[in-house]
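Why this split exists: single-chain examples teach little about how molecules sit against one another. For that reason, every record in the complexes split bundles all components of an assembly together and asks for one structure covering all of them. Below is a record exactly as it appears in the raw files.
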Amino acid sequence: MDVIDIHASCDGDFIAAVEAESGQQIAECYQCGNCTAGCPFTFAFDIPVSQVMRLLQAGQKKRLLTCKSIWLCATCESCTTRCPNNIDVARIMDVLRHMARREGYASERGVKIFWDAFLDSVEKHGRSFELGILTTYIAKTGRFWPDMGLGPKILPKGKLGFRPHEIQGQKQIARIFDKFRQEQRS
Amino acid sequence: MKIGVFICHCGSNIAGTVDTAQVARTALEFPDVAFATDTMYACSEPGQEAIVQAIKDHGLDGVVVSSCTPLMHEPTFRRTVERAGLNRFMFEMANIREHVSWIGKDTEANTRKAAELTRMAVEKLRRNMPLFAKQFEVNKRVLVVGGGVAGIQAALDCADGGREVVLVERESTIGGKMAKLDKTFPTVDCSSCVLGPKMVDVAQHPKITVHALSEIEDVKGFVGNFEIAIRRKAAYVDWAKCTGCGLCMEKCPSRKSLDRFNEGVGTTTAINIPFPQAIPKKAVIDPAFCLKLTKDKCGVCAKICPTQAIDFKQQEALFTEQVGAVIAATGYDLFDISKYGEYGAGKLPDVITGLQYERLLSASGPTGGHVQRPSDGREPKTVVFVQCVGSRDKSVDRPYCSGFCCMYTAKQVILTRDHIPDSTSYVFYMDIRAPGKMYDEFTRRAMEEYGARYVRGRVAMIYPKGDKYVVRGADTLMGTQVEVEADLVVLAAGAEASQGAGKLAEKLRISYDKYGFFLESHPKLRPVETNTAGVYLAGSCQGPKDIPASVAQGSAAAAKVLALFSKDKLENDPMIAAVDIRRCVGCGKCIQVCPFKAIKEVDFRGEPKAEVIETVCQGCGLCTATCPQGAIQLAHFTDNQILAEVNALCLA
Amino acid sequence: MSTYAYYPGCSGLGTSREYDTSTRAVCRALGLTLADIPDWSCCGSTPAHTVDHTLSSALAARNLAQAEDLDASALITPCPSCLTNLKMAVHRMRDRDFRDRVNKLLDRPVRRDLPVKSVLQVLVEDVGPEELASRLPDKPLAGLKLAPYYGCIMNRPPEVMQFDDPEHPTAMDRLMLALGADVVPFPLKVECCGASFGVPRKDITARLSGKLLETAMDLGAHAMVTACPLCQMNLDLRQDQAASALGRKFQMPVFYYTQLMAVALRLPQNVIGLNKLCVSPHIAFAAMRKARAEAGRRDPSFSEEVA
Amino acid sequence: MSGVNELRIVGFLCNWCSYGGADAAGVGRLAQPTDLRIIRMPCSGRINPLFVARTLLSGADGVLVSGCHPRDCHYAEGNFYARRRLEVFKRLLPTLGIDPGRFEYTWVSASEGQRWQTVVTTFTEQIHRLGPMPRFSPGEACVAVLAESGG
Ligand SMILES: Cc1cc2nc3c(=O)[nH]c(=O)nc-3n(C[C@H](O)[C@H](O)[C@H](O)COP(=O)(O)OP(=O)(O)OC[C@H]3O[C@@H](n4cnc5c(N)ncnc54)[C@H](O)[C@@H]3O)c2cc1C
Ligand SMILES: Cc1cc2nc3c(=O)[nH]c(=O)nc-3n(C[C@H](O)[C@H](O)[C@H](O)COP(=O)(O)OP(=O)(O)OC[C@H]3O[C@@H](n4cnc5c(N)ncnc54)[C@H](O)[C@@H]3O)c2cc1C
Ligand code: SF4
Ligand code: SF4
Ligand code: SF4
Ligand code: SF4
Ligand code: SF4
Ligand code: SF4
Ligand code: SF4
Ligand code: SF4
């Protein structure tokens, strides 16, 4: 395992940025582990959420922005609800994802593609169009729908629409995305 | 008025950066200064003699010494001028060492500053008045509130010191939490074996009166002369007649009463003596469960009692005690674990508190010392302990460490192994706090010799699965989530202020922190005193404390009381407030702000006026700054005196 | 009674249409007036807040603005994910700066501070289990053992959601008890089912949903009852995936609570949409009837589908 | 002549905490500007805003009040009242034509010598930035304002 120079490798600006964007005080975490203990996704994480908090205290930017955990957090709010120090941990996970996106990292590519496909659909139609999202997802990941087996179950139920529900204010939605992207660039 | 001024060199401490001779020469020009000189060491024998001599030679009415901080030598010089026949308040000090010579090297600026500070002192002294302390009688009885181990120790030490003690206890027996414990750390000796004899001593001591089932209703008066109103709750048993034979308990049909002594583990009878060693050993009827008192049925106890002690009509009683000092020793309460919904606490029968576990371990407890699950009586093989429940947790407003739960948990895992050799204990902890003599060795022993498996991390949830409980936590050292299936879960519930502590503090006029723990006068140097003269603290009412610390404080508080009572008369500090009755309009604002309730309203020829109770006033001056009429003035710090200092600086 | 601005959420038109139809029907039957939000749009769901909080709140807030014309007392939605996004937007927009940033993205800024609630909250607070029970003196669902599952975000974080207990919610339990059903002490009421990872990481969803199904089964539940489209889909549609992940076999019907209310209230079959469920609900009703028979109770009269 | 540009700064310090803190600074030989003169008070609660106003109006260029930390008051709640009164008072200073920067109140405990050094140094610098107080005679308005501040 690597030896870390805890002074030289600590990125103070990164800590400050996470604190500013999340409104949380990183130093308040006393590493009790309650968030990890309650997180249903710990088994799938490469870094348990309490260690995400620890690495954050140590200013380990790259480790965090390239980890899988931030993409696998479901924002289930278990950590936030139970943190003895009232830290909104789920919000910090969200903020780390925002930063990872901005810096071009996506360690769980499939997750990102799925979410992007969802948002594309919303941008295009004003509402999410389930079949469309799946199609985009399959196209972008280059895999077959891994859930093919579900097809026969769900299709006869008549629940998956074959046409998107366009809304009248679709342009307004597109403008929300446009303005947001402009803001991000400026 | 003739004033003498002495400018001290303090060796080179002052003289090194202040031209003391120059300051003395300048001082001679100040009004009323009849004599001024510099002096090598003002506080030394010869230095003090020179002051005495000057007072006599020049017929001085007052003295200013410019030297070190008054917090150091003001009392010294007051005694000096007193020796020369002056009132000790005809003295002022200017601090030209800590506030001048030691913080700057510029001799010229320092000299000017020293002269100005001296001038301020002179101007103030010109307006000083001789002040005389009032002497008053001391009632040499002491009231101890709370009969836990701290209160017991305080009571015994005061009584052994020859003073009469009144011990007021809210429950029907003294003993507090310690009476409920099985064994005690770090020696693992039996709690009732050490506490029991002390309780008997209390009962038998000719100088101690115990009022059990009683609480403080009201406190009047001040140090040396408190008048305490005490309310005694109805026991429905005439204790003068009850012999504690226990026959009533055997026959009482209401067997499902809440067993408060056993922390609700098991039940008891509506009439009961909480435990065999209770002091006083008297029966009490719990009116919530007695069939006679709830439904007017039964009455069996009254028939069976050989001394006809039962009295269903008994009422509360109110009486007063006169004492000269009070020791508050009301201890702590356990944090209410049902606030942890994620632990199922309060709902799941086998998720219990540490104190409940003590009762399960205790040979005199509801299970006769057999560790059994409350739900089905089965012997647990896997016991999980969770530390810091209701402590170090901001989300439940308990950010502080309860201090003793790390240690009692270690004790409990050791005892668990002794009771059930083939059991395994897990302890979820955040840190282990064991900073006493033999304490860390003790917790190490729990791990090394008793095989307790300590897991560093908090627990997120506990839920039932079959007849077991899944405890899901983290092992932060491994960096993983962990689960363990437990038969019994013991939550190390933390300590919080005893119920009603805040109200009691207000009656006693002492301060308490935002959690309800009483505030000591100084956290390091006056740990058992309060800011109210004559009121002392002992034990965990001041903050979570283990038994050794509680006992030490009980003794310390007793020593303070004995020292107070060693004088026949007490003297007040004469720097207190006084009301100019002509200017007072009776608005009562001063009465509202006085933190010590030292001002009362009196009737003066049909008009309300404020009057200061001289022996209660602590001299804070809050009233003086509040009074819109300038009618109430703090002696030695009057508006005139302070403004004279201001003017000496700004208008000169 | 006042009008509620109703937000069905995208899935209400798709994968959870039976939730939508049964919700509308139950509300109507209980005297609640719902008015659809004109031209509502997607709340942004999870994907939006993983990109940016302003964007996410703007997508949600457009619907708050659209609802302002309705003069409703509250905006209500059956879907917890929509609920979270809408409530979080309202919560965060209490901060002036944030509100300004969100409004900047919108053509029509949000002006009113419209309360946002779940349909469940309205049914429990504005109608109440007592009222419901009094309409159903024959306890139509007696004998049916249910494991109520709320999902992770219906009540959490409590500061934002402001409804029911964050660890042991009981709102749905109380409604089901009012229908006469039995409720098992389901301990994982708020444990996450795997949320939206069904597509990109079905391994995760399978394991988490499996744990819920397993616990419900071990407690002897005849069925699970949920209030969330995503949970329902993970538990029902993906039940086989969960079973193979855990190496167990499940046949656990998973209802929307509004479906069971509709059944008890004898509403028409087409709005209840029991035929839309993947795992056949008849297993549960059969178990219910058996339990009734054992208890010597008479069967209530239901529509054919249930019987 | 040294120290010629000294300004007139008056400190009102409570006896229990801040006065001790100033002593601790001295004991630690922590160098400070020489402008400040300290008046010892039993408690910050004894400090009538009137004193501060009088001091400023009769020739001082700055006034510093310091007491015990909010929860540490020797008299339980004196400093709590002090804070309330002085806060109101500070807001009224502009009405008196006085720059509110000329008056500060702060909390320093008996052990905080270092903190005291910082407080004195910062405050003295602040007063020097403001320069000497413009001289004028106290008008009627002051009296009204003082009455208002609960003096
Ligand atoms: C589970 C557990 C195990 C422990 N094990 C150990 C151990 O092994 N070793 C150890 O050193 N410490 C142990 N402790 C700590 C120990 O309990 C305390 O240190 C000790 O009891 C403190 O004594 P006390 O007199 O200050 O307070 P308490 O024991 O709380 O006594 C206070 C008394 O005052 C009474 N009272 C309260 N309010 C009023 C009122 N208003 N008027 C009149 N009376 C009132 C109460 O009824 C009580 O009798 C343990 C604590 C717990 C919870
Ligand atoms: C680095 C450090 C920092 C600390 N900081 C703090 C703090 O911030 N707060 C705090 O509460 N505690 C602090 N402590 C602990 C504190 O020092 C002790 O609690 C305290 O000094 C104990 O006082 P004492 O009187 O028992 O012992 P001591 O201070 O050791 O006094 C014992 C005295 O007895 C004399 N003596 C010894 N043997 C004999 C003999 N045979 N005959 C005659 N005289 C003898 C010694 O010369 C000495 O003067 C600190 C300790 C250390 C090491
Ligand atoms: S629960 Fe809170 S304090 Fe504990 S490790 Fe997680 S973030 Fe830190
Ligand atoms: S919000 Fe994310 S990190 Fe927190 S417990 Fe849920 S999944 Fe884990
Ligand atoms: S009340 Fe009577 S029977 Fe009961 S213990 Fe006392 S003396 Fe014995
Ligand atoms: S009268 Fe009450 S206390 Fe006495 S025996 Fe009957 S139930 Fe017990
Ligand atoms: S003593 Fe130990 S268990 Fe108790 S609060 Fe402190 S750290 Fe936690
Ligand atoms: S020895 Fe000192 S530093 Fe180490 S744990 Fe104990 S108190 Fe802390
Ligand atoms: S505040 Fe002044 S005028 Fe009012 S009652 Fe007190 S002393 Fe009298
Ligand atoms: S000086 Fe303080 S203690 Fe004395 S009467 Fe005034 S306010 Fe009360």
